[in-house]
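TASK: fixed-backbone design
INPUT:
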């Protein structure tokens, strides 16, 4: 019985800590690895990238984001991307869904606009630091079958 009460109290405290982080007026920064050899697209075998995000909670649970990234893709030129997006924290314990759009530029004149979806979870390691695994889908406007991508992203976020 005591174990159940203790677990319930810990779960309640974790929920309270997480909910305080998604309040209006907080800033957010994130660095992440993308692809991690788990992404898939028709034109690439290996894909590994890095991405930086900055955000601001414009309302409780609603975040506006800006992002920049670089990816190395085997058999395809390296790519640079900039974009904007938004994130909604579905439940107060850290589950979120994001929408974004990126302008992607690569060598050999490759340019693409890629709207995307992301579903992830913010695991709090402390009061303001998180580990954020997510799955994503980026839709290529230029060539859906070769450049659209499904993948895994793992990031470290800080809520200020």
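OUTPUT:
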């Amino acid at each position: 019985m005591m174990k159940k009460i203790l677990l319930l109290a810990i779960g309640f405290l974790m929920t309270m800590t997480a909910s305080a982080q998604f309040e209006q007026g907080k800033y957010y920064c994130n660095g992440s690895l993308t692809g991690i050899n788990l992404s898939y697209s028709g034109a690439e075998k290996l894909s590994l990238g890095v991405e930086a995000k900055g955000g601001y909670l414009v309302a409780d649970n609603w975040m506006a984001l800006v992002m920049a990234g670089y990816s190395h893709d085997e058999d395809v030129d390296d790519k640079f991307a900039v974009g904007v997006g938004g994130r909604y924290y579905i439940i107060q314990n850290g589950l979120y869904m994001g929408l974004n759009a990126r302008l992607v530029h690569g060598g050999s004149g490759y340019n693409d606009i890629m709207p995307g979806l992301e579903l992830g979870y913010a695991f709090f390691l402390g009061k303001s630091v998180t580990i954020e695994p997510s799955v994503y889908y980026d839709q290529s406007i230029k060539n859906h079958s070769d450049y659209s991508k499904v993948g895994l992203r793992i990031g470290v976020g800080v809520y200020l």
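COMMENT: Residues 6-10, 12-19 have pLDDT under 50 and may be disordered.
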